[in-house]
Design goal:
By secondary structure, the protein is an alpha/beta fold. The chain is built from four helices and five strands, in the order βααβββααβ. The longest helix is centred in the last third of the chain and has 12 residues. The protein is globular.
Length: about 110
């Protein structure tokens, strides 16, 4: 495996799970070898895109919460996500968290 330029969002994740990133993160690194890619570790399955103009990974908010809800009650997962994940600013390459829910109004 190449020397990845992935910056860990949470160092604790690496200590607990090692340096193996999921297939989506590995694909981003492979396809963008010259980029610094900041990932929210543990949310590989929630990656829905990559903004190549600003070198930012795009995550589904709902999928991130689903990942967290596997280990905690849903309401706690939402609160944790809002404060500890989406609320973290890690510089110019901070990931984008995008809601995939589209609301319609029939009024």
């Amino acid at each position: 495996m190449t020397d990845t330029k992935v910056t860990l969002f949470e160092e604790a994740w690496e200590e607990e799970h090692g340096k193996d990133h999921g297939p989506n993160t590995q694909a981003l690194v492979r396809d963008n070898p010259e980029c610094v890619i900041l990932v929210a570790d543990g949310f590989d399955s929630a990656i829905i895109g990559y903004d190549s103009d600003y070198q930012r990974v795009i995550y589904s908010t709902e999928k991130c919460i689903e990942v967290l809800a596997k280990d905690m009650p849903y309401d706690d997962a939402v609160e944790y996500f809002d404060f500890n994940v989406a609320g973290s600013h890690m510089g110019e390459h901070t990931p984008i968290f995008k809601s995939e829910v589209t609301e319609s109004y029939d009024g």
